[in-house]
Design brief:
The protein is mostly beta strands. The chain has a single domain, classed as Immunoglobulin-like. It is about 5% helix and about 40% strand. The radius of gyration is 20 Å and the shape is globular. The N terminus is likely disordered. It binds copper (II) ion. The site of copper (II) ion has 6 residues, from loops.
Length: about 250
């Protein structure tokens, strides 16, 4: 799933944070200015790709019956041209200090249909609602394992088909798993800014709404590691950043 970010708010320094307010401890924060620069790219896997095995659901017929065809493990999701899906790309350096970015009111929605997490890899804003859906209506146990934020561990069943949580602080990628179905695994990162995206099945990503500047970006894949690049974005310009991942040790 391609995640496109749309971001447009007015510049406004909070009124009341002048010299007088400063004396009572007011911290000036500036809301993000409207900006239209972007970083886009395509991520490919180079080399001979291992074949993903089918998920063994036979011991869990409630899962197996949801699917008409075998479901492959998703540690490595490639299309025919070896474009790599499920890479989280995000800005790690170069953003202006002291800027507040409004948190989206709409939640990030995670489905567990057929005992498979969707999305498998995602970013979310600190304070944004994360909603877990259980269309299966049988038992799943959502277990998020952050280190900075609080752990989250809740069961879901036919009575509880929807639950929500929020992560309050920014945090690098951590696991979310199901304690009932061992193959169910997802990866989440929490951000205090909106400049992140996950590659689509065709390996593309787009980070939009950036002001002009030089940025360090990071591409994270659950098995293939982390890569970084420095990218210069002109005002309203479209910068490109492609990555090539290989099997570790090759
Ligand atoms: Cu489950």
């Amino acid at each position: 799933m391609k995640k496109r970010l749309q971001f447009a708010v007015r510049t406004a320094t909070f009124i009341g944070c002048g010299a007088v307010a400063a004396s009572i401890g007011c911290t000036a924060k500036t809301q993000a200015a409207e900006a239209s620069g972007s970083i886009t790219g395509t991520i490919v896997f180079e080399g001979r790709a291992p074949k993903m095995p089918a998920v063994q659901m036979a011991a869990n017929p409630e899962c197996e019956t949801v699917h008409t065809e075998p479901v492959l493990h998703q540690m490595l999701v490639l299309d025919a041209e070896q474009h790599l899906a499920n890479v989280l790309v995000h800005v790690v350096g170069g953003l202006p200090e002291g800027v507040e970015y409004p948190v989206p009111e709409e939640p990030v929605v995670m489905s567990q249909k057929g005992c498979m997490y969707s999305p498998r890899v995602f970013g979310i804003r600190a304070g944004q609602e994360l909603k877990f859906m259980n269309p299966d209506k049988f038992l799943h146990n959502v277990h998020a394992l952050p280190k900075v934020n609080s752990e989250f561990n809740r069961s879901m069943n036919s009575q509880r088909t929807e639950i929500s949580t929020t992560f309050k602080k920014p945090e690098p990628v951590f696991d979310i798993k199901c304690d009932v179905h061992s193959w169910m695994q997802a990866f989440c990162a929490v951000f205090d800014h909106p400049y992140f995206a996950v590659t689509a099945p065709d390996g593309t990503f787009a980070i939009e709404g950036l002001p002009a500047g030089e940025y360090e970006i990071e591409a994270v894949h659950e098995r293939l590691g982390i890569q970084r690049a420095t990218v210069t974005v002109e005002a309203s310009g479209k910068a490109m950043a492609d990555f090539t991942f290989k099997r570790p040790g090759t």
